[in-house]
Every structure is written in structure tokens, then in C-alpha cells.
Specification:
205 residues; Arc Repressor Mutant, subunit A; Rossmann fold; 2 domains; two-stranded antiparallel sheet; 9 helices; globular
């Protein structure tokens, strides 16, 4: 699971960009806190933990903090990504234009179905047995898994053996990976179930 504090840093960045686009040059911790839904103390604690420096009494310079966050998140680097599974989720991700805006590049897709390895795919497509070759050639560290549940662990193992260190998993199964590999599970149904529970509990109060 990706740590909550780095997730908040990413949220701070989105908030800072929004305020910058509105013409603001400075921002206070209580404004960020209100936007993100945390306390001002949490904002300052997060900034301190990640060594984000600024004059909090006069308001943080937005561009200065953005520069520091961008360096922290390696925003200037091109982050190459591979994806296993060219079904509905895979197709949607291939079409997503937000990757390029954040210096993320899908360099290859993989699927066992030959019909999906067609020439008009926006990225090169291969059989999963080509994963090690592509990872080595492109020096990829991040992989996305969007395959059926029964194939997910096998694909995960192939990625890990090839050198992948971070996996975003859309398959409805908890993957097993070495301690030095970060796996982030994305389950829309699980998120909705949690949302339904919290909503019902709030209504009972």
C-alpha cells in the first residue's frame, strides 16, 4: 500500500497547481489543509518530513514548493511503464492522455490473445513472454497488471523476475511479491463497498 503521506504530497501538488493557475503566488498551511481535508499541523508535519522548506509565517511561495515537490517526485524524468492485459481496462489506459502530461510513458502492452496484438494499438504489443526482454531494453521499473484474476500472480512473477519494482494491480486478487517490490491494488468494487459502508454509518448517526 502506498503510504498516505506521499499521497497527501501528491494532493498538495494538485492543489498548489490549481491555486497557481488562479493567479496566487503564496499559500498558507491552513488553506492547503482546508482544501485537502486535513489539519494545518498535518500539512506542516508532511512538509517537514519531506524537507519542503518555506516561510510559513508569510505564506509558502507556491512555485518554490512546487519545484521542491517536483524534485521529490522526480517529475523531470520520463517514467517508462509496461502493461499486461489489453482488455477494456488496458484499452482505457492506453487512451488516457494524462500520462504524457505527467512524464509517464506506456512503452509496451502484453496479452496472450493474438487478436489483441494488432498493429493499430497505440503502443507496441507483445506476448507476455517478451516482458523480460522489453523491461531490460527500455529499463522499465513500473508495471500495470490488468489481466483476469487467474493469470495475475503468474504475470506478477514474470514482472518481478524481469526487474519490475512497482506494480499497479487492477486484478481482483492480492498479489504476493518480494518485500522490495511495491504493489498497489486498485479495486473499484472494494472502494465502493467501503464508501457504501461509511455512507450508511453516517446516515445512522
Amino acid at each position: 500500500m502506498i503510504k498516505k503521506n506521499i499521497q497527501r504530497i501528491i494532493q498538495y501538488r494538485m492543489c498548489l497547481l490549481r491555486f497557481q493557475n488562479l493567479g496566487f503566488e503564496r499559500i498558507f498551511s491552513y488553506t492547503l489543509a482546508q482544501e485537502i481535508g486535513v489539519s494545518p499541523e498535518q500539512v506542516r508535519k508532511d512538509f517537514s518530513q519531506f524537507h519542503l522548506r518555506g516561510n510559513k509565517k508569510a505564506g509558502y511561495l507556491i512555485q518554490d514548493i512546487l519545484d521542491q515537490i517536483n524534485e521529490l517526485l522526480h517529475k523531470e524524468d520520463i517514467h517508462k511503464i509496461i502493461m499486461a492485459g489489453l482488455g477494456n481496462i488496458g484499452k482505457a489506459l492506453i487512451q488516457y492522455k494524462g500520462f504524457a502530461k505527467r512524464n509517464m510513458q506506456l512503452v509496451a502492452g502484453f496479452d496472450i490473445n493474438p487478436a489483441k496484438l494488432k498493429k493499430n494499438c497505440r503502443i507496441p504489443a507483445f506476448h507476455p513472454d517478451k516482458i523480460p526482454e522489453v523491461v531490460k531494453k527500455e529499463q522499465v521499473r513500473i508495471g500495470i497488471i490488468a489481466v483476469p484474476e487467474q493469470a495475475a500472480q503468474e504475470v506478477c512473477n514474470i514482472m518481478v523476475d524481469a526487474g519490475i519494482k512497482g506494480i499497479l494491480n487492477f486484478a481482483p486478487v492480492i498479489l504476493k511479491a518480494p518485500s522490495d517490490v511495491v504493489v498497489q491494488n486498485i479495486s473499484v468494487c472494494a472502494e465502493l463497498e467501503a464508501l457504501i459502508y461509511v455512507t450508511r454509518k453516517n446516515e445512522e448517526k
